[in-house]
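Researcher: Structure for this, please.
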Amino acid sequence: MITSGKKVRFKHMLSSLKISGFRCFSSLRVDNMRRINLIVGLNSAGKTCLLEALELLASQSPSPLVHAAARRGELVFDEFASDSVRGTADIRHAFYGRQASIGTHFQIETTGVGNLQQVRAEIVPPTQASLLQNPPVVEGPARSLRWTAGGTPPFDNPIAGNGTLLLTSLPFPSERRPVRFVGTGAVAGTAAARLWGQVAARPAEDKVIDALRIVEPNVERVGAGVYQAQAVFVRLKEASDRIPLGSLGDGMNRLLVLACQLVSAEHGMLLVDEIDTGLHVSAMTKMWRLVVDTAKELDVQVFATTHSDDCLRGLANVLLKSPDLVPEVGLHRVQRGLEQTVFYSGDEIIRSAEAGIEIR
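Model: Predicted structure, token format:
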């Protein structure tokens, strides 16, 4: 077991989601959310947008807008401190229709276990106080982004005349409800070493080592150190020296990141874009076994996207071998022009895989 004491169910596990006016979604509803949720659909259907909406809702903070802008190349300038974020992001892309005129807004809401959660962002005229504190750096119409989350008072952030959002001194998401986002970009070197540092010498360390053994069964130990640059190293059976993790291939780095973020999301949420990135088809079933078992043990709700039919078959293999996990899993297909995702239960995932029916 990774944690000691009585297990506490994640009080905010989401059961449905409604999105209005966010990125590519004029309106979208997602029902039947399970512990493990696989999201599929064509390119540009909105799979990543759905993950980003979930991150905003779960964190209750607009800070993920900057993180998303950085991943998408929409960030003009950024500066991250230990407890705050400062950046300039083209806020127009966060709204349906890519415009940020007065009155434009998006809203994300969901029902959980006996509670309603909601976040709302709206473009409003700036208050005099906000203009004095943060005058526009570019000439243009004065506007602010008004952020409202749950029952907390709204707060405004100024928008420059060119449509960029100035985020200053905003707190990162509360660690009382951890939310972890794994993007498609490579994570290595210092960034990977920091992730390993979150779990090293803790019971969760064994889960991460087990994940690496999916690709390289001879992994004995993992550590971080300085070798020209900070990096993660592994010790292999019968090897005379440590080996940089990156030299073993992209799949090893991907599994390290995935496993570290999964165990760090205990009693929270893990969001993974293209979960099969860097992994060979032979690793899919073992990867899903690790994700499903760990998510259930640590009370993590997982949302992951994929384009891969092999990834779906890997998940189906896990469900076939462990029928008790079937109710924990669901698939949601995002389709352009539809205001509701198409849901497939764990049983339907199995039947589709057995019949060779494509549902992605």
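Researcher: Any notable elements?
Model: Confidence is low (pLDDT under 50) at residues 1-10. The first strand starts at residue 17 and ends at 22.
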